[in-house]
Amino acid sequence: DQQVKQNSPSLSVQEGRISILNCDYTNSMFDYFLWYKKYPAEGPTFLISISSIKDKNEDGRFTVFLNKSAKHLSLHIVPSQPGDSAVYFCAAEAGNNRKLIWGLGTSLAVNP
Amino acid sequence: NAGVTQTPKFQVLKTGQSMTLQCAQDMNHNSMYWYRQDPGMGLRLIYYSASEGTTDKGEVPNGYNVSRLNKREFSLRLESAAPSQTSVYFCASILRGGLTQYFGPGTRLTVL
Predict the structure, then answer these.
(1) CB B89 within 8 A of CB B21
(2) Cβ contact, residue pair B43, A44, below 8 Å
(3) Which of A73, B14, B92, B102 has the fewest CB atoms within 10 Å of its CB?
(4) A53 at the B interface (CB within 8 A)?
């Protein structure tokens, strides 16, 4: 059973608009959440993270929101740019060994 | 500073052949990881090494062995390749106390 779920396999938005990518989790022991971005034929690259003690973290155009009661987090990209077109993975971590549990990813297409 | 490097980038094997995937990092990171990514499956942890001299199984270790040769290098070995091991393999590393994993570019392996 998937502990980290990204229920939308794909998302298409217009350049300049907001992109919202969603992630749900089932394990209340997760204490750290990360978003990674992946271009074709490259490894994932870290984008932004949030600790379970916070409900929001912002870095430039990227904001992650965490709703612990709903076990839900979302990544907002404002404004979206064509270079943001990639697969976005949500990952969660519990414990000290830094093992990550990954969602299946959402493919974002930002159209000019 | 090359970050995390992986060799080879591509490999085609016949069923039953063996090979070793190499990973090295020059960031003085303590922990290293091997993942595989399959279509529709996200990233799954094969093995990890929390520190030099230690290795532990991840989610899908069957059919693989690893060696943490030194602090820099972490290799993944397929002793008898099977078509089910056709995948893209990613190596990652993280600094002790750090919060984000850094990924290599991946090795695309096909087993015929």
Answers:
(1) yes
(2) yes
(3) B14
(4) no
Q: Are strands A32-38 and A86-93 parallel, antiparallel or unpaired?
A: antiparallel
Phi first, then psi, for residue B26 (nearest 5°) are -115, 25
- Rounded Cα distance between B94 and B102, Å, is 6
Query: What DSSP character marks residue A9?
Result: S
Measuring CA to CA, which residue among A29, A37, A20 is closest to residue A73? A20
SS3 B45: strand
Place of tokens 């959440």: A33
Any CB–CB contact under 8 A between B97 and chain A?
no
Please list every residue in chain A whose beta carbon sits closer than 8 Å to the beta carbon of residue B33: 99
Rounded to an integer, what distance in angstroms lies between the CA atom of residue B2 and that of residue B26?
7
Which of A53, A100, A104 has the highest number of chain B CBs within 10 A, making it the mutation to test binding with B?
A: A100
The helix/strand/coil state of B97 is: coil
d(CA A112, CA A84): 11
The pLDDT tens digits along chain B (112 residues) read 679 999 999 999 999 999 999 999 999 999 999 999 998 778 999 999 988 989 999 999 999 999 998 999 999 999 999 999 999 999 999 987 777 899 999 999 999 9
Q: Is the Cβ of B4 closer than 8 Å to some Cβ of chain A? A: yes
